[in-house]
Amino acid sequence: MTLDAAVLRFAGLVVLVSVLLSIYIHPYWLGLTIFVGLNLVQASFTGFCPAAMLFKKLGVRPGNAFD
Question: b or e along 27-63 (b: 16 or more beta carbons within 10 Å of the residue's beta carbon)?
């Protein structure tokens, strides 16, 4: 698995979990979905992604998007 795939899978998982939490626990969990979406947009412009930095430290091999 490349770093790009790991970041996208993690973001997708967090979005799905936050939607489920907002349905079953409290609607304020949608704030997490908004946060992930905003982080994905800013990462597309700046190339800075905290999740990519974490996965890189964990030894996930580099991909094309996040160096």
Answer: eebeebbeebeebeeebeeeeebebbeebbeeebeeb
pTM of the model: 0.86
Beta-bridge mates of residue 61: 2
Q: How far is 30 from 19, CA to CA, in rounded Å? A: 6
Q: CA-to-CA distance for 20 and 22, rounded, in angstroms?
A: 5
- Please list the pLDDT of the chain residue by residue as tens digits (67 residues): 899 999 999 999 999 999 999 999 999 999 999 999 999 999 999 989 999 999 999 999 988 876 6
